[in-house]
Give the backbone structure.
Amino acid sequence: MDALVHFLPQVWFVILALFLFLYVMLDGFDLGVGILSLTSSDEERRSLLMTSLGNIWDANETWLVLMGGALFGAFPLAYGTILSALYIPIFMMIFGLIFRAVAFEFREHSQRKLLWNFAFGAGSFLAALGQGFALGSVIEGIAVDEAGHFIGSTWDWLDWRSLLVALTLIQGYVLIGSTYLILKTEGDLQKTHFRTAKLAAITTVIGAILITIATPIVYEAVRTRLFSPPLVYVFAVIPVLGVVLVGLLLRSLNQEEEVTPFIWTILIFLLTFIGLGLIVFPYIIPTQITIYQAAASPSALVFMLTFIGVLIPIMLFYNIYNYVVFRGKVAGSAYGE
Amino acid sequence: MDLLSNTVALSRMQFALTAIFHMLWPVLTTGMAIYLVIVEGLWLKTRNPDYYRHARFWSKLYVLNFGIGVASGLPMEFQFGTNWAPFSEAVGDFFGSILGFEGAMAFMLEAGFLGIMLFGWGRVHPVIHYLATIMVAFGANLSTFWILVANSWLQSPAGGEMVNGKFMVSDYFQAIANPFMVKSVSHMFFATLETSLFVIGGISAWYILNNRQQAFFSQSLKIVLAAAIAVTPLQIYIGHLSAEQVAHYQPTKLAAMEAKWDTSPAGQPADWSLLAIPSETTQTNKWEITIPNGLGYILEFKKNLSEPVLGLKEWAPSDRPRMVGLIYYAFRIMSGIGFFLAGLMLWSVLQWLLGNLSTEKIGQQTWLLRTWIFAAPLGYIAVESGWIVRCVGRQPWTLYGQIRTADAASQLPASNVLTSLTLFAVVYSILFVATLYFGSRIIRQGPNLELPVPGLDNQTAVETEPATFVPDQRPLEAQQ
């Protein structure tokens, strides 16, 4: 039983990390494309950018909804504490996602496209900013009492470190958005995004380096964990792998390959995620509340695992099928009419 | 207690506002998805191209509402954490799991197949496409199921007990099959269906009345009418069963629904209040029209009550719902609409039997068609009223009898909630107006009856991966 009490929260930590990774990767390129659309003044191009997401943005966003529900069920304490502590960035994200979503529907029927173009781009930016601040604050830690309830103030999430994380996340989204567009478009449009991808790759790496340096310096708890075994070995390998992947990405962009930049970017995201996950584990509110303290009762975790666990491969299957059906370069008006 | 500095009241208002607005979109898409399954199925079976064009035309309205439903639904899930953190912590084991199920089983299914349903014509075989449409409809209705499971559990908690302020579940399946579940799920399933049927019927009637594509829209009106024959009376019956279970499990809510201040003892008849002006200060109805001996007939189909019906005065004011007038009238509006729509169904069926709904004659049924147009928004009003009865009537409890709403709310600065509440009010009002505006534009444009029909016999799709960019055909004012 004791082993189960530890094992189940760990399983759910991994599942939540998977959902979050899928969300950040998939809706990450949606949001990146949205942010990129702000820089485009050509209506035809922007139309193509939105068409490239038309059939998938909703499914991609659903990974966030799924993660929210699973966090609620598996770690109710963390769900309540984190969301109420981050009230402002969470609602920044929600309003951003609302603007982004309605832009897709209303732009299709509207003659005043400028307004909905702006809603699409600015909404994507706002959502990414809110997510970045939220991520930054969770890594920094949230002020809680012994029972795990929030005792900080409503603006705690805002400081230069969370801003740095937010800006880096936005750069990361622009990077993955650019490589997605390289995959989905042709000609001039594709050429533009080889350039934006290169630029975003460099700014993302700078941001990541700054975060990697700043975090252990500012947070003693992270420092002691990082520089003692076994984590020290892992964190010796991750930067090396990171450098290799960034090198491969830049090379593929220079050689104007179509598919590989997207794949290298996904791997860079994955590596970052594994690194973050290892820093955070076994906490869910670093470095105060562990996953074991915040977890729902073992019976609830088993109950959820029975239903959701079985569905994960099925969900992955039909999501992949969706991508297979719409593979190839994006073309034309979305509704085919 | 100043309202603008009362975080609990503001969080309640925010939840109510977002829920009331959000409801407008999925109510239509959930029911309409079933309609789309029907017309696409009819097309595959009869190969009549009109059914294909019905599927294409109505799915334009569908996707408009679907997208806004997704957007407006996001804050629903996150609000439990942001504004109701103590509640989330206390009930996460069950309530959170159910929301997780909704995401994994329902939303993902719907979202995963929506792309194929909307944009997949010509990319996949018609049978695969039909499968995608079925999955979207199934996902939407599964979502109704899980949301109503979760909400029914709040109305009649089961499957465990409160231990140290946390609901410990002993039997998850008992919690799912809580006393309210079956009737509430059915009531909401038919509510979405009935609302959608009368929206589709009302729009079809508008075209017929305006002499536009009368033959085409007679088809949809008749499909809707045929479904309404079953749906409208069933919904009244399930509504009655739901009221019975409220009487049994939530006597405070029933007393508020009937504005009943004094208890009526068993074994005697009691009057039923038809219209009244309830006053909470005097704990009486200032003015009232009653139907003598009506209450027994309404609750039990007989004159004498077999169980006492408790009045609101039986409870301390802090243990019973407030806003009695709102609950009382919301209940009457909902029930009134239910009977009105059933009546419209009967009138229309009578005309159908008399042969007056044939394509040649249907245009002359001016008043019938006008009534259908009038009925188009009524389903929404009934659904909103019903939810007001259900959730305002549940007060002062969030988890009935276990967790009070005042104890369920996060301790937030009131200014935060006031800001988000104001933003939601503004943004959702814009979404509401914009949906009406763009929806009516789609309707005014009308269906494309020249739309080429994909081949059914070819095993391969008609056209895969078009190679060139085809610019948007519509005028672009904003083009630079």
Summary: The beta strands of chain A are 283-285, 289-290.
